[in-house]
Amino acid sequence: MDGDEGPGPELQGRLGYLLKHAFFQLEDLHTVHLADGPVNVRELSVLLLLEGREPESQQQAAGRLGVDRTTMVGLLDSLEGKGLVARQPDAADRRRNVIVVTDAGRRALKKAKAASDRAERELLADLSPAEGRQLRDLLARILAR
């Protein structure tokens, strides 16, 4: 490789560069592994967020996912169109709608989680299982601050 190719050692050693490009690789792997399923990686995030929780409003879900309201509406519209989530009146407050995962959504989530797990394993293939856990733990510590 010629010394003028690639980002160079100064940039390649920066945390931002490393995190960004690892994320891009993971996104590409998710695209490949989720291609045969009913959801994309953004929709998978919504289903994972809603899984096993009390139903909540789309505004609450958007806040926890860290997306704006318009983006959340689009994601939910897509998932609802596929029959994977439903908007229902809140039993405690009829003026408010909550989002629930349907039976089809739970089946799709199971399949998508398996595909996502394969994508993550492929990304981390050069790490030992202990190193993969350590990477997750270290990133979680950073995000918990």
From TrEMBL:
Protein name listed in UniProt: MarR family transcriptional regulator
Q: Which PANTHER family match?
A: MARR FAMILY REGULATORY PROTEIN, TRANSCRIPTIONAL REGULATOR, MARR FAMILY
The organism's lineage is: Bacteria, Bacillati, Actinomycetota, Actinomycetes, Propionibacteriales
Q: Which UniProt keywords apply?
A: DNA-binding, Transcription, Transcription regulation
Q: Which InterPro entries match?
A: HTH_MarR-typ, MarR/SlyA-like, Tscrpt_reg_MarR-type_CS, WH-like_DNA-bd_sf, WH_DNA-bd_sf
Q: Which residues form the HTH marR-type domain?
A: 12-144
- Any Pfam family: MarR
Quote the SUPFAM superfamilies the UniProt record gives: Winged helix' DNA-binding domain
